[in-house]
Design a protein that fits this description.
Elements lengths: L2 H35 L4 H15 L5 H4 L13 H24 L6 H17 L13 H30 L5 H42 L10 H17 L2 H10 L5 H20 L6 H16 L5 H32 L1 H23 L33 H4 L25
């Protein structure tokens, strides 16, 4: 086995690791509102989401074909140099995903990946290696503008949908309405999970295919190998099934208090926008779309929005590209400076060490299926220091969700129909 083949294998493993972090980092996109309203039990929700992510990954490869096209000029390099750039970019994306997961911040895995690739490309090729703006191509058109427009459009559509829902059902029995919308949430959340698999798994497929081209075993005109599609689908599904509880809690409980009609409106809006972007091959951020939808439902209902929580999310969004880029550039410099297989192994070891440290840090204030639905403010802030015993014991209602009870109202794990106002 040659050194270059070993580098390729490490790049593929790292890409699948990124896909795995993408899964548990973005589980919240599909299931946060369904868990918050009690439409689905927490563990049932993440297992359902994982299964649908697996199916969604097989439905389309449009995004895979355009994952880095029009953003970086990687066609100017090849062989080991291209493998180093791809590897460093993946490490940048993984580490940013883990940092934001530790802090409970729903940031974009897609933008973390692009940021890592951009940073590694700048370090390797200079500023001219990045396509900043060129008509419909470039960082501005393909990343920045969608990042700004997606949450705004999602918020507007979700706000209108929520207002209409409450307008139409204002004379109906509230328990019956909530019961029906909880059942509807199961369908809409499933659609978001399917859309997430359709959109996000393909990015990793494209990265692995790029590595195969760099190694010389594939040409750009070839189709995606089946093993690439299957492995990426399994990786993102496995990560999703693990459940990113810290981010699920932030989206489900931290931004606004969510009722079943809001949950259905948010999920339906997100699914429509994400599936449309996947159809046209646009690498849209599902996280920002879902966050915008949840915010819109709060505005449409006139509920209190925790602007401080939203502010932290926006800061994370703004920092994603540059900080993931810095990490990608540093990793490329380290790998390239040492050179060859040894350089890649050193960076890979650093990645494992930092990931382990962040996982151990998360155990100080754990968030899991049993306490994810505790009221906002009852648990320590995600990422805060402190023993696990400091976590407030969850109530039975927070630990389990039941979509339908005999009187039509959920009795477990659901938010009240008129939730109390709580400040962050």
């Amino acid at each position: 086995m040659t050194a270059e083949l070993l580098v390729l294998l490490i790049v593929v493993v790292t890409a699948l690791a990124f896909d795995f972090t993408n899964g548990f980092h973005d589980t919240a996109n599909a299931m946060a509102t369904s868990i918050a309203t009690g439409a689905l039990r927490p563990r049932t929700a993440v297992l359902l989401s994982g299964s649908l992510n697996l199916i969604g990954a097989f439905l389309s490869v449009e995004v895979a074909a355009t994952v880095a096209e029009g953003i970086v000029r990687l066609n100017e390099v090849g062989g080991p140099d291209l493998l180093e750039i791809v590897f460093a970019g993946l490490v940048g994306g993984i580490l940013w995903n883990l940092v934001t997961w530790l802090l409970g911040l729903p940031s974009s895995s897609s933008h973390a990946l692009f940021g890592g690739l951009i940073g590694a490309t700048i370090a390797a090729l200079g500023w001219n290696g990045v396509i900043w703006s060129a008509g419909k191509q470039g960082v501005i058109s393909k990343i920045v503008l969608p990042a700004v427009l997606a949450p705004v459009v999602a918020a507007l559509v979700a706000a209108i949908a929520t207002w209409l829902v409450y307008r139409i059902t204002r004379s109906s029995d509230e328990k019956v309405v909530n019961r029906g919308f909880r059942w509807g949430q199961i369908g809409s959340a499933s659609l978001v999970s399917l859309a997430h698999g359709t959109n996000d798994a393909q990015k990793t497929m494209g990265i692995i295919f790029l590595a195969l081209i760099a190694y010389g075993s594939r040409s750009p005109s070839d189709s995606l190998p089946l093993w690439v599609i299957v492995s990426c689908a399994v990786a993102i599904a496995a990560g999703t099934s693990l459940g990113g509880w810290r981010i699920i809690r932030t989206l489900g409980k931290g931004l606004v208090d969510i009722t079943p009609p809001q949950g259905l409106a948010a999920e339906s809006t997100s699914a429509a926008i994400i599936l449309t972007s996947a159809h046209f091959g646009l690498p849209l951020s599902t996280t920002q779309t879902v966050t915008g939808s949840i915010l819109g439902t709060g505005l449409g209902r006139g509920a209190e929005v925790r602007w401080q929580v939203l502010g932290r999310m926006v800061v994370a969004w703004v920092l994603t590209l540059p900080l993931a880029g810095v990490v990608g550039a540093i990793c490329w410099g380290l790998a390239h400076g040492i050179g060859g297989l040894a350089g890649v192994l050193v960076v890979f070891a650093v990645l494992i060490a930092l990931a382990t440290i962040m996982w151990l840090r998360s155990r100080r204030a754990p968030v899991h299926a049993s306490n994810v639905n505790a009221e906002w403010g009852e648990l320590p802030s995600p990422g805060a220091a402190g023993p696990a015993s400091a976590t407030a014991p969850p109530s039975e209602a927070a630990a389990h969700g039941d979509p339908v009870s005999r009187d039509g109202e959920s009795t477990r794990g659901s938010a009240p129909s008129q939730p109390p106002v709580r400040r962050p």
